[in-house]
């Protein structure tokens, strides 16, 4: 199935949704070959019967198409170590204003955070961006941009345009990170934003490891 086919299938199943919810975006990303944490969505008012297949510690996040930043309103619970803590976290998050449910995922191991995103600019059209992620993208604004879609060579150029490239290669004795896997993320995001179906896509952070990547948070809105 092509990228376009997967996007069409995704949109047909969510014709009235905008913006899309995090677990929905991650479902599309998984279909495009990107790695996302193992998790489950629990609708508001649904009792947790089992989290079989998930390993503690877990993270729980409020899910709502009307909440722009979960962390700013206390909508994230980290380091959940057992079933009782999970029940408490889900109960609290489900009662938050505008909550539609809770996304429960396995905690990710630490790594280097990057951001990969895309936007349709009124003047230039679809654009893909890359830079150090997490809080660093807000503090240092060390990001690079390119017209979308991009191929693998252009994605590598995008990385080289940032100061974070030194860390990707291995800095002060640290092992080099998986640039090949990151290249795939950038190319896929560029194809999604160039499809003409979406206004924005924001993967922040994407955790980069010596082997592989993991998309921890994902947002997307339609045209």
UniProtKB/TrEMBL annotation:
Keyword terms: ATP-binding, Ligase, Nucleotide-binding
Short name of any one Pfam family annotated for the protein: ATP-grasp_5
E.C. number: 6.2.1.-, 6.2.1.13
Domain of life: Bacteria
Ligase as UniProt keyword: yes
GO molecular function annotation: acetate-CoA ligase (ADP-forming) activity; ATP binding
PANTHER family tied to this protein: 3-HYDROXYPROPIONATE--COA LIGASE [ADP-FORMING], ACETATE--COA LIGASE [ADP-FORMING]
Protein name: Acetyl-CoA synthetase (ADP-forming) beta subunit / branched-chain acyl-CoA synthetase (ADP-forming) beta subunit
